[in-house]
Design goal:
By secondary structure, the chain is an all-alpha fold. It contains eight helices and no strands.
Amino acid sequence: MTKRNSINYFLVLILIVRILLFSNTSNPPDPSNFSSPSAFTSLQQRLDLAFASYLPNREAGLLSGIVLGTKKSLPTKLYQQMIQTGTIHIAVASGMNITLLITPLFNFLTLFLNRKVALVPLTILIWFYALLSGFQAPIVRASLMASLLYLSQEFGRKADSLRILIMTGYV
């Protein structure tokens, strides 16, 4: 991915954050209660509402499934069609989501920060996404694998993908 694509991707992320912060929803999260799991559920609901307010029902449900891993927003007919065609895996959160999130963001951060310094906020963001998605098993596995990969880079060691996979499978 080129640096220009990373900047474009980052601008899309800024747009999503802007929608979250400035969209009118009936139940915004309470900042004083941000440490509780219900605050992240409320954040999930707010993101879901933002998708629904800017996109048609089918597309909003699909985007919510891809980003948050929630299938509850998918219309029943679309859900059944995706099961029949074998494409339901698209609408659930997976390791691909982590890759789609961190690769362009990492490229963007390295425009301004040293590679080792950029790994710290990136790892924090990975685990924030895992929390936001409700710690679904595929996201936790991918987050752990990415964290171990970045941790090895932080210590200047060559990452052994097989060893990381075995360690992740063990946990």
